[in-house]
């Protein structure tokens, strides 16, 4: 990679104009640090192009000069993929000014949006046309749809609708040489060549910059029943998932696991939250069904008879449903109050979750006695966040010094179980070394070959991802 | 490409043994012709490996010798992608002896199968575990799951479950140098690098040979209501789709359009078929809802009130539902009785279908007066088969001589409407030239770069697909 010269930076400024860039340290500052402070970088310039053509000319200039370019969405990523290198030789680009809905086709159930729209704005644009865009995650008010696609975001509705990858019909991408691939097709079926769309989705900005997308829309749900159920074990939670799917088919919209330790953290630290049930249980499941309350009741009644559920409540109003979801959503904030934590984002086949969690927590407790594992998340997808809080009596720094061995326990066991060490958060900077422990040589080489085929100069988000 | 020498062929025989190959012309014959006779090829040897290791060693030998290799599934493809070249320099490989279920995990709703299983056998294996594998298409008794994945097969349930691409969690692939990529992961979420799986799905055997796959399973449907409805226009059929989706959400399992000309062909040529309705209508819609009959009735009642449906029948038993589906399924056979036809497989956004069909049929009728367009198919996905029968008084050969100009009308209009000229049947040999009229230079180049990155010697299914 070359260092950007003053002449090169002037060329970029001439493309985007005065409003399309900044070199002001105060403006740059929030873009140069991952939001929890784990990764920091530098850049000579922040570019805010307004059109695909401007993005194209910026990337062409970087290509000509051999200067690295880092695309950043809403800067909510958890692996640092959106942060430029510390050396300050890479230009930073964000599409927040490319935030228009280009078109909505309610009959086709599709919508063309620019990459800089926040996920919330995308959801709202769909709702204005009486349609649903189902991607939903904690950062939705801040993250951008371009970043969601570049990282193949997950969230709470994957069990029903799949990852971000499943929600996109077409893409517009600025390639690493500045040319534009116009793949903005609103087609449910198109078998004319290699699947380019899925190459860019999830590539973390290492193969090109997604500037716009055709998104799938869905009918809005006529009714959602939210259930909070006590289950005696993770085995029972898995059995409840199958029991429910068998009865309601695709009506399972979300299916989240919470251990009692999670409920305890939330009710201790988040004002206004309480245990929705009369009893204390080792585990709870929070799930949404797009089904009438009567069907949710019959699911729970039969689960109570089977003993896979010991108690449950069904929200009988949207506000009560939201109160139940607030327990789940405020868990990361609640856990912050307990000092340092080491977090993970693993997936295994749903059937392997109980044995996996038991063994991982056992080994971590053996390594760090009195540490406090809180294992929660998207049970319906086999994706759990195994977040370990430090022992009450241990200093943060001493605990965080154990990060690598804790990671290795969690990741080695996931790998042995055929799982993934990054289910929804990607590789970024954070897992770039770690992933090399687990990927086969063949798979690493395939990643590298594709990276080299599409970005032979290596200017797209250098040092991120696998390839 | 090199010609295979006797020594090279001996090397292949030593890998697969006596039962794993054939050079008998009678055995080879059915593998060397596309089933309608449109494409014919030659080969010095048919290989029938029994294990992934044998496939790996075969491909490594081809790679070393620079000999082309053609993978063939059930030989039901419609674009000739499975037929070797006429020169006879390519070896032909089929995985019909690799037809085992490796494992089924009903709790995880996943199943590992070898590529040579027929689609029907896969469906049956899922059913034995009280699960559904929803891919369904006319050739399901013969086609192989490996071919379905290599071509990203569609069929009648795409509106609910997506293409074959959406139904696979992981793959095992023998790469063009003979190494094996073990991507047999049963994960709903895995963001660790470039999406390799989707690169191989739909690549028509040009990037590697799929030897096994992890498939997604689903709950079996508790009830299916089949509806046959008369609609006054294609606009009304599109409106009925939206009307139905709004009321039943994802319960639309299939949604097919038939013009009256199709019903007439079927009732004329297929014994035992009748118009299920009392009236003659310009168009009909045949659809399945995984919903109680009462819900199907309420959908139809409101559609009758709106005037988007003029008459309808709901099957009140599985056998009556099958009788309705027989009309749709026997249409290709029925049309054969009317002499030569020119067929297409296009998709456009659902909202654009009415205008597209009207204009395409108008231009074709202007080109060939008295020709008989029969436009039917998967309206729910925007995928129609525009199949034009010759005028009654025209000779087959004279009509087929018009294939190119007819194709150009149908494809040019689809392209102008943002559509695809091959929605579900792929490129193969048949559309390899035609696709170059429509793909941008950038998109063609991306296909070529990826092909070269993965198969630099060009031995995998030479002369097929886009790249």
3D structure, described in words:
The structure is a homodimer of 467-residue chains. The first copy, chain A, has 467 residues and is an alpha+beta fold. Chain A has helices at residues 6-16, 25-28, 52-65, 119-128, 145-150, 158-161, 197-200, 234-248, 260-269, 293-306, 318-329, 331-336, 353-367, 396-400, 403-416, 441-454, and strands spanning 21-22, 46-47, 69-72, 91-94, 101-105, 110-114, 131-132, 168-174, 180-183, 209-216, 218-219, 225-231, 252-259, 283-289, 311-314, 341-342, 346-347, 372-378, 383-389. In chain A, the strands form five sheets. A five-stranded antiparallel β-sheet of chain A has the order 5-6-10-8-9. In chain A, a hairpin with a 5-residue loop joins strand 8 (168-174) and strand 9. Chain A is globular, with a radius of gyration of 23 Å. At the A-B interface, strand 9, strand 11, helix 8 and helix 16 of A face strand 9, strand 11, helix 8 and helix 16 of B.
Annotate the secondary structure layout.
The structure is a homodimer of 467-residue chains.
Chain A: H1 6-16, E1 21-22, H2 25-28, E2 46-47, H3 52-65, E3 69-72, E4 91-94, E5 101-105, E6 110-114, H4 119-128, E7 131-132, H5 145-150, H6 158-161, E8 168-174, E9 180-183, H7 197-200, E10 209-216, E11 218-219, E12 225-231, H8 234-248, E13 252-259, H9 260-269, E14 283-289, H10 293-306, E15 311-314, H11 318-329, H12 331-336, E16 341-342, E17 346-347, H13 353-367, E18 372-378, E19 383-389, H14 396-400, H15 403-416, H16 441-454
Parallel strand pairs in A: 2-4, 3-4
Antiparallel strand pairs in A: 1-2, 5-6, 6-10, 7-11, 8-9, 8-10, 12-14, 12-15, 13-14, 16-19, 17-19, 18-19
């Amino acid at each position: 990679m070359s260092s950007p010269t003053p002449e090169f930076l002037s060329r970029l400024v001439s493309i985007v104009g005065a409003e399309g860039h900044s070199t002001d340290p105060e403006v740059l500052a929030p873009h140069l640090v991952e939001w929890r402070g784990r990764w920091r970088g530098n850049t000579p310039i922040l570019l805010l192009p307004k059109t695909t053509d401007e993005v194209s000319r910026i990337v062409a200039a970087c290509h000509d000069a051999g200067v690295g370019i880092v695309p950043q969405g809403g800067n909510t990523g958890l692996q640092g993929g959106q942060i430029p290198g510390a050396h300050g030789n890479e230009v930073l680009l964000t599409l927040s000014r490319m935030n228009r809905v280009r078109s909505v086709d309610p009959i086709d159930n599709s919508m063309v949006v620019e990459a800089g729209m926040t996920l919330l704005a995308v959801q709202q644009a769909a709702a204005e046309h009486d349609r649903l865009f189902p991607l939903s995650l904690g950062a939705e008010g801040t993250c951008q749809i371009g970043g969601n696609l570049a990282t193949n975001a997950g969230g709470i509705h994957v069990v029903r609708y799949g990852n971000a990858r499943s929600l996109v019909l077409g893409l517009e991408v600025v390639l690493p040489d500045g040319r534009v691939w116009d793949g903005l097709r609103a087609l449910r079926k198109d078998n004319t060549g290699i699947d380019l769309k899925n190459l860019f989705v999830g590539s973390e900005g290492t193969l090109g910059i997604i500037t716009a997308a055709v998104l799938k829309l869905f009918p809005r749900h006529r009714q959602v029943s939210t259930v909070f159920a006590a289950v005696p074990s993770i085995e029972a939670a898995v059995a409840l998932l199958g029991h429910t799917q068998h009865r309601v088919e695709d009506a399972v919209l979300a299916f989240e696991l919470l251990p009692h330790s999670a409920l305890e953290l939330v009710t201790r630290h988040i004002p206004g939250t309480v245990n929705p049930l009369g009893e204390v249980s080792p585990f709870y499941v929070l799930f949404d069904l797009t089904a009438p309350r009567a069907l949710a009741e019959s699911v729970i009644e039969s689960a109570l008879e089977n003993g896979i559920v010991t108690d449950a409540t069904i929200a009988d109003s949207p506000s009560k449903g939201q109160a139940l979801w607030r327990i789940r959503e405020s868990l990361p904030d609640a856990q912050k109050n307990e000092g340092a934590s080491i977090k993970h984002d693993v997936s295994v086949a749903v059937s392997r979750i109980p044995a996996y969690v038991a063994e991982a927590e056992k080994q971590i407790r053996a390594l760090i006695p009195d540490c406090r594992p809180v294992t929660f998340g998207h049970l319906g997808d086999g994706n759990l966040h195994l977040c370990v809080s430090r022992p009450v009596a241990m200093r943060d720094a001493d605990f965080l010094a154990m990060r690598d061995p804790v990671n290795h326990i969690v990741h080695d066991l996931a790998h042995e179980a055929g799982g993934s060490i990054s289910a929804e958060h990607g590789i970024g900077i954070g897992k770039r070394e770690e992933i090399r422990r687990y990927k086969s040589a063949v798979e690493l080489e395939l990643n590298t070959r594709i990276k080299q085929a599409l970005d032979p100069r290596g200017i797209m988000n250098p040092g991120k991802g696998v390839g």
